[in-house]
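In response to reviewer comment 3 from the previous cycle, which asked for concrete evidence that the modeling workflow produces usable outputs, we include below a single protein chain processed end to end. The sequence was submitted unchanged, and the resulting structure tokens are shown without manual editing.
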Amino acid sequence: MIPQLFVYGTLMPGAINWGVLARWSAGTPTPDSIEGQLFDTHLGYPAAILGAAGSIPGFVVPLDPARLDRALGALDDFEDVSTGLYKRVELVTARHVQAWAYHWLGSVDGMRRIPTWRA
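The workflow returned the following structure tokens.
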């Protein structure tokens, strides 16, 4: 299983929810980007449409391999995967790192496209 997570919003280092992810981290986050478009949900967190034309900056965070299943389960809960808000998908970053990321499943109608997330 892939032991890295790409983050682009409130889970980034220094962001409001970094502590949720930091407990599962097993190394230094690395700046990177992925293909897609980022939107402001106006709910305090962004929506990413992965694979769309464009680039989303963020960080690759290495996860503790010994606790990977628990980490991904906890992060899926945090991202509301079970309710269909986001879906965790496998991707390859601009720096050719295989990682997980969370893809927005809802509509982006009425949301403003943004170049990066800044809370």
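The beta strands are 4-7, 30-40, 46-62, 86-92, 98-104, 112-114. We consider this sufficient to address the reviewer's concern, and the full set will be provided in the supplementary archive.
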